[in-house]
Amino acid sequence: MGNIIQIPKPVYILSSATVVGQHEKKGPLGEYFDIVGDADDTFGCDTWEKSESEMQRLALSRALNYAVKKDSDLEAILAGDLLNQCAGSCYGLVNFDTPFLGLFGACSTAAEALLLSSLLCSSHMNRCAAVSSSHNASAERQFRYPLEYGGQRAPTAQWTVTGSGAFILSNKKEDFVNTSYNGSPVPVISDVCIGKSIDAGITDANNMGAAMAPAAADTLLRYFKESSSQPRDFDIIMTGDLGFEGSRILCDLTAAEGLDISAVHCDGGLIIYDRIGQDKHAGGSGCGCSAVVLAAQVLRGIRTGQVANILFIGTGALMNPTAIQQGASIPGIAHLVHISSDIL
Amino acid sequence: MQIDKKSYRKYADARAQKSPCAKNCINAFLYGGFICVIAQGLKDLYMTFLTEKDAATLVSVTLIFLAALLTGIGVFDRIAKHAGAGTLVPITGFSNAVASSALDAKGEGFVLGVGAKIFTIAGPVILYGITAGAIYGVIYYIITLII
């Protein structure tokens, strides 16, 4: 018991903003992203790590813009990325005059930030920001090989998304009055479920989907065991970045436990790219993947009235290159955020 | 959720998409063979004004230069994606491993960046290549003493 945490008073997603690179722009959701980087995805910076920081700065600035708020209106920023010591967030958000909490949940960070922000906004604070990012070049450098190294990628490997998503959360309905969202349905977070770190024994760093799927299955099974709702009650059950392998495994694992989600399941890693046409192997991944797909596809759907009830499950492979080299397997984690539609 | 690691790993491996082995082998043969044809052409050209030994050395130097140049302008990895072992096994792969590491590390400076990280990938090849060479030398020396 106690898996689902109810948010005691409504916490609204006041605004969201996305920043992406060229590959994402060329994907099926390309037209819905707010800011697209320059031709080489450097965002005007001389190192890839600085580029990622710049993406976070741009995303949060734009989200504040949409919310018609200033950084001093926020009581906390919760942010994370894939770089060591959360360098992307620490440097990118250093100039915002707001208390800062750095998070690491691998690719589940967007969900982790939303989950914690909604808890804070429902009790001790009025407004928070949740930000996450990943950059293909900085992630490749840190976790895999040099960018120009001539290797072949495995068919199960995923492509780290160059993207950053920022969300402004507020418990005040009146915050919408001055925004362009006034008058349309708005996203509200009603309950959350914290994921468990689950080590299913996967040691292949090129098959993150298989490492994350059991954690996603565990979170969903715990959620539906305790909730009175069924998968068919939701318009979308969106996982962050399980990709082709992980999505198939998730549906198998949940079906084996009597929970059929296949009709409403979609995965951020599978819809951000034209997987075959853009040659992205098993799909997209990264902290930025779930964040930008959630903002550009799902929240847009809520605001336009196309969908009204969704489950967002941020999935992360807690992969550490040193631990992998020492023979350890990769634990996965999946945090759930239930977002529904509210009419102002 | 209880999960048996051994059986799950077996299940995940079994359903994972496999690399197209036959296609990769054919591509490696064609690309690798093409590089060797270029090398032979260069050797024939160089032998018009050099000895065979010097020409062979200059061929290696030329291939290393070309691979590093293609790495620098961002073309090598696009070819290697299809060529696989075809570009990895010849000296071009070694050149790419060194040049790509150097390029990647330049943001961290010339000492702790390029200097320290240039052999991150090629380092094991150098270490074990030299060690194997030394062991081979000792064995060869002993055999010549016996025979």
How does this model look, in words?
- The complex is a heterodimer of chains A (344) and B (147).
- With 344 residues, chain A is of the alpha/beta class.
- Chain A folds into 2 domains: 4-173, Peroxisomal Thiolase, Chain A, domain 1; 185-342, Peroxisomal Thiolase, Chain A, domain 1.
- Chain A is built from 10 helices and 14 strands.
- Chain A has helices spanning 22-25, 48-67, 87-92, 109-123, 136-143, 208-226, 243-256, 268-271, 287-303, 321-325; strands at 4-20, 35-36, 76-81, 100-103, 127-134, 159-160, 163-170, 186-193, 198-199, 236-239, 265-267, 284-285, 309-317, 331-342.
- Chain B is extended, with a radius of gyration of 21 Å.
- The mean pLDDT of chain B is 95.
- Helix content of chain B is 80%, strand content 0%.
- Chain A binds chain B through residues 46-49, 141, 145-156, 198-204, 207, 210, 214, 217-218, 221, 244-245, 248-249, 253, 257, 282, 329, and chain B through 1, 3, 5-6, 8-9, 12-13, 15-19, 24, 71-72, 74, 76-77, 79-81, 83-84, 87-88, 93, 96-97, 99-101, 103-105, 107, 120-121.
Give the SSE layout:
The complex is a heterodimer of chains A (344) and B (147).
Chain A (H helix, E strand, L loop, with lengths): L3 E17 L1 H4 L9 E2 L11 H20 L8 E6 L5 H6 L7 E4 L5 H15 L3 E8 L1 H8 L15 E2 L2 E8 L15 E8 L4 E2 L8 H19 L9 E4 L3 H14 L8 E3 H4 L12 E2 L1 H17 L5 E9 L3 H5 L5 E12 L2
Parallel strand pairs in A: 1-2, 3-4, 3-5, 6-12, 10-11, 10-13
Antiparallel strand pairs in A: 1-7, 1-8, 5-7, 8-14, 9-14, 13-14
Helix pairs in contact in A: 6-7
Chain B lengths: L4 H11 L5 H26 L5 H21 L3 H8 L1 H4 L2 H15 L4 H8 L5 H24 L1
